[in-house]
């Protein structure tokens, strides 16, 4: 997917190398409402919706008064196809580890409701159609940004989940590229410094967000063979340190966006307030390091991102 971090559900799921896994190699099939529902689940729709929101934010902030609804819709359609394709390929790559994890074993592939061939064909097909649509319907820089997101998510971040505890940092790159896609659809390569501000907001946001999830599910991730920071940090001290540092780094981002002409003082102040609220929960996690407090960090992250991006949009329309 465009990973983004942006995920509402815990999507720091495990992955594995390319290899065939036929339906008869997994657990007995678990009934599902329909094959349509299974294919839809392969696309990780809740994650895709948040990613598409950030694509739209990037486009609208870049285009400003020149916003063209038709171009925005073309961009969202292409991005949705690429995101869906990437998510399907992601689940194909992680199917065996998913089968060992309680929270993912009922997904269509580990549960045996879809075969590897079906998932691969679905993922590759959506990805190719989405990228072709980008290059036909919107300025080509957006297609390049979408291709970079897809490749870095599926082929770089995915294998690293079983290699290094810092895979989350690598994964934050494709997770932060969706607003860049939107920006490029509106302005091409022009003014990419503005897109940098949006990229940094989402890049930094993902680290405490996903570390909170990884802390809560650390036993399940260990069962699946993932290498996440909380599993290599039983005391939680390093996990808490990364959370606090990245939350603190979000506070001045609004001011940087002013300098990059992405935001004005209204958004800068609002982003700082949301950042302080996020930081407060991270500091509390440093003191208690409990699952309950990790969930509070997660909730604060889900308040921060739509709040900060919403303020940027309001600022762009009303105060500039």
Question: Which labels suit this protein?
Answer:
mainly alpha, 320 residues, 14 helices
Give your account of this protein's structure.
By secondary structure, the chain is an all-alpha fold. 70% of the residues lie in helices and 0% in strands. The chain has 14 helices and no strands. The chain is flat. The chain starts with 34 loop residues before the first helix and ends with a helix.
Provide the low-confidence segments as ranges. 5-29
Strand content: under 5%
What Rg is obtained from the alpha carbons, in whole angstroms? Answer: 19 Å
Arithmetic mean of pLDDT: 89
User: Total strand count, please?
Assistant: 0
Q: How far apart are the termini?
A: 33 Å
Tally of contiguous helical segments: 14
Helix content: over 70%
- Please trace the helix and strand order, writing H or E for each element: HHHHHHHHHHHHHH
Shape: flat
Structural class: mainly alpha
Summarize the main sheet.
none
In short:
The chain has 320 residues and is mainly alpha-helical.
Write the layout of secondary structure elements.
Blueprint: H1 35-42, H2 45-63, H3 69-93, H4 95-98, H5 116-137, H6 140-160, H7 167-176, H8 178-187, H9 192-216, H10 218-224, H11 237-250, H12 253-259, H13 265-288, H14 291-318
Helix pairs in contact: 2-3, 2-8, 2-14, 3-5, 3-6, 3-8, 5-6, 6-7, 6-8, 7-9, 8-9, 9-11, 9-12, 9-14, 11-13, 12-13, 13-14
